Amino acid sequence: MEKHRVVIVGAGFGGLFAAKSLRKVPVQVTVVSGTTYHLFEPLLYQVATGILSEGEVAPPIREILRGRDDLDIRLGWVTDVDAGASTVEVSAPDGTIRTIPYDSLIVAAGASNSYFGNDRFAEHAPALKNIDDALEVRSRIFHAFEMAELEEDPAVRQEWLTFVIVGAGPTGVELAGQIAELAHRSLKGQYRRADLSTTRVILIDAVDRVLPAFDGSLSAAALKQLRRLHVDVRLNTKVSDVDAYGVTASDGYLRARTKFWAAGVAAAPLADRIAQSTGAGTDRAGRIEVEPDLTVAGHPSIFVVGDLAATGLPGVAQVAMQGGRYAARVIARRIAGRPAPKPFKYFDKGNMATISRFSAVADVGPLHLSGLIGWLGWLGVHLFYLIGFKNKVSTLLHWTVSFLGRGRAERITTTQQIHARNALRVVAMLPVSAAAEPLGGAAAVPSGGAAAVSSGGAAAELPGGAAALLAGDQVAPVHDQGLRR
């Protein structure tokens, strides 16, 4: 008899914990993921600021789920779901489309960053949602300090030493705190011409307090610590535009060559396809409305967990973990012919955010911890949930170097980490026919800038007037981060 087929879309917290929970259930599991790794997103900002390497927060999926005959892992992106035929359409990296049938489907595709309809901001203010983002952000941060060292004009040098982060949630607060620590502590004395003590870190948000999901007392504690780090926190301030040289906010134009976006998330594009196929409703952020058992109404074989489900719960790792486990438990009971479990109920284990070394806030039930106690709790919790013994050990060593000393072990950056990503952004905006041209050696050149050249010799024009090679042994500068005046 053929085993019950379970397809899991995504290998984030929801997908991974669903796959692990199905280990002893008589099913055939197929995990479809757009990356080869599982990302421990809560520590991603530490990759971006030179504390940890990408491997420490992104162990390979195949290594985590090794030794299982019941499990198949496919690299690709689910582009469509046919609820009537019980199949998913998967696009491989080479463009090949494959169809995978399922008896149960667990969708844990997560969320993407949202620029609230202003996607052009991404060119100048990258977000922090994946490893590619983290490497680009890291390159921009350390590149800014190097450019400040080279710059002779004091006004322009200050623009290089000004960092703007849009969004005062955990990611924005953590990023702001770490950039401030880099400038005022970790890199102190390493630059001769650039006075890093003049570095400005500006944190902007339209809300009235930092960390709005936390208890008010913890928001106040976080704000106090940020100001101790000389972070300029501007609340009740809206951003209307971002360009190569700065940010247009409701309180004026801020000149800054380096900007980052941490101001919102939206459902992954797959949510829209699922809604069309199943007739499911969606909320304002595009998340799919689900039943109390996390299934789509009228389609009990389709589960939606984590950030993609409109449950009214926060978009944190624990929601996805518990949702993945719950979906696996429902499937196991169905196969065993047992009654369905009670409706999904989220057990809130609390929220945590770090501001700087020795300072964090933790909202755990009735406990509201801040300062050193909150920081120690934050270290313990994140180390506990980090996957892999080797990763735990190496992370602990890197934390010791960075927090007790001044070192940042992961400061290596390349210009390609900035420029190639902008080239890819341009290619993503091209029509399908034009984007496919480079393999044949023809040019796909929109208007207003210079060309990004692929290994096939074709060109896709970049904004700003300079070229970056997508392959080969040279990289020419790209005018993206305000590299030229």
Automatic annotation (TrEMBL):
Reaction catalysed by this enzyme: a quinone + NADH + H(+) = a quinol + NAD(+)
Signal peptide stretch: none
Domain FAD/NAD(P)-binding: 5-324
EC number: 1.6.5.9
Transmembrane regions: 367-387
Keyword NAD (UniProt): yes
Top enzyme class: oxidoreductase
The keyword Amino-acid biosynthesis is assigned to this record: no
Keywords, ordered alphabetically: FAD, Flavoprotein, Membrane, NAD, Oxidoreductase, Transmembrane, Transmembrane helix
SUPFAM superfamilies referenced in this protein's UniProt entry, alphabetically: FAD/NAD(P)-binding domain
Domain of life: Bacteria
UniProt record similarity statement: Belongs to the NADH dehydrogenase family.
The protein's name in its UniProt record: NADH:ubiquinone reductase (non-electrogenic)
